Amino acid sequence: MAEEQQESRLTVILAFAANLGIAIAKIVAAVITGSASMAAEAAHSIADTFNEVLLMVGLHRSVRPADRRHPLGYGKERYIWTLLVAIAIFGMGALFAFYQGVQSLTGHGSEEVDPIVAYIVLAVSFLLEATSWQQAWREVRGNAREEGLPFLKYIRTTDEPTSISVMLEDSAALIGLVLAFTGIALHQATGSAFWDGLGSILIGVLLTAVALILGRINLNLLIGNQADPRIVRDVRDRLADEPEIDWVVDIITLTFGADRVLLCVRLDFRDELTAGDVERAVVRMSQELREAHEEIDEIFIEPVPRDDPDLRKRVIARYGDVAQRPRPGRPQISPD
After folding, report:
1. 304 burial type by CB count under 10 A (0-12 exposed, 13-18 middle, 19+ buried)
2. Which keywords fit this entry according to its UniProt record (predicted)?
3. Please, what are the domains in the chain?
4. What is the rounded distance in angstroms from the CA atom of residue 28 to the CA atom of residue 127?
5. What is the average pLDDT value for the chain, to the nearest integer?
6. Among 52, 72, 192, 289, which residue's CB has the most CB atoms within a 10 Å radius?
């Protein structure tokens, strides 16, 4: 977990350094050339630089230990800051790109001069962005491989959005640089500012798409996702095999930070067990589950009768009319 934190910090720091240098160069090039596409790219890089600061703040604040007011810690704060990144990408990058594009298309943009400076800045920017993107791509791909998940599924289900944010930002930056280069080149070749304005608008569309993707990822994490289904299945199987358990009535999991899972379990214990037997079994099972899955941070186990009608209704309302796992060798009883 500490290694992943260090890797995420390295990814964000590298992206910040690259974006800061690129932003300065693009601002100078936009002023010199008067290109709408270059101005849009400058706003894009300024937004990305600001975003890396937000991501660093989120990384720092989310690892604070739990306290009385926040007994589960501050893990979810990372999602707040990453959601702000999505808002900044749209507000600082996309809207400005749309504005520049419309200005150019309606003939209110600056007169473009020799774009050679823009070409040089775009080329250097592409190399720097590619370096930052490679680091983010390597981290995300490595995390997906460790989780044993396909790349796209990992992006959809991960509880660690920081490196994905950097990767998406850098991917958008690389595509945006190509769009800006194309718009400027077509403007130079045809003498029409239409192409430069169109390039700026397409950059705005691109940034809007990235902002929506990031927003959706972090919205789900803030609402509260279930843990990895593979963890849930393994927990259910382990508990069903315990000699003290007749029935696994209900399992609720919730991610509340990167690699941090809250586990709540309702179990029907064998009737002949004493209170002391149940207490010792709960302690042992909790320890075994934590050893099997380091992501499980907090565990709550509640003894319940599986035939309680109100509890059965609540479980069915959440998951549908699906029978829970009994102790091996016991008959399966489907809920009424």
Report:
1. middle
2. Coiled coil, Membrane, Transmembrane, Transmembrane helix, Transport
3. 2-223 (1.20.1510.10), 229-319 (3.30.70.1350)
4. 18
5. 84
6. 52
